[in-house]
Amino acid sequence: MSTIMMLLLGLFFGFSLNKAGLTKYHKIVNVFRLTDMAVLQFMMTALVVSMAGLYTLRGLGLVTFPTVPATYIAGNLIGGLIFGVGMALTGY
Amino acid sequence: MKFILNYIRKEVWSPYIAGILLGIVGILAVWLTNSLLGASGAFENLAGLIGKAIAPKLFDNLYFNFIMPPGITSNVILLVGVFFGGMLGAATSGTLKWGKKDAANSDPQWKQIFGPQTWKRWLIGFIGAIILEYAAGIAGGCTSGLAISGGMLLAPAAFLFIAGMFISGIITAFVIYRDRF
Predict the structure, then answer these.
(1) Do A2 and B154 touch (CB under 8 A)?
(2) pTM here?
């Protein structure tokens, strides 16, 4: 049951990534060249929608949150810094 | 109805519409399966599985035993779905290039910067992906697993990660493109 659920979620996840153009090299790199903000628009829209939805659902008592990713200030920052290099190189 | 079908056939959607779709997927993931969307973790699970089979001594460490246990986890299944979802997206817009010429290296902007060689594309992609995966291991997630899924639960880690990602991403793009920035 949860396997099929995961597959379906992944299907829509990949579909939305593809339709937003995030599977293309130039879309990813142009965000860092500050000429095409599609990736940022896509990410922030997704963030706002799911944030609003999840906190509403929790307010109604329908969901319990899974454990949030742990915060290590140095780890997250350094990881992010190295990640950006790879992202601008590959266009992942 | 026709309008919706025509919109699905479009190659590039408005990022806002696609973002709303991903947001809904994110909500459903937490609501129905009580898990977060993530991509990079799956590769580590698989790498652990292969590594334990080939060199069990080398992979018998804290990271692969406790932080990223090897095996076919739900993340791996999600990744399979992502693969076919991306394919479905390309198929609906008619850009799926099955074995066509240039299919492995079809981005005009890439060719303009690095030249037309396919092996170069693959090499840089491979090196970049190693950097990506290593960094995702340090930070505890990638763009989807940490930035989007963590961000929607308002985890401070996500926003630190996004800040770091953009700082170095902009610098790297600047180094690669220089006067064409």
Answers:
(1) no
(2) 0.85
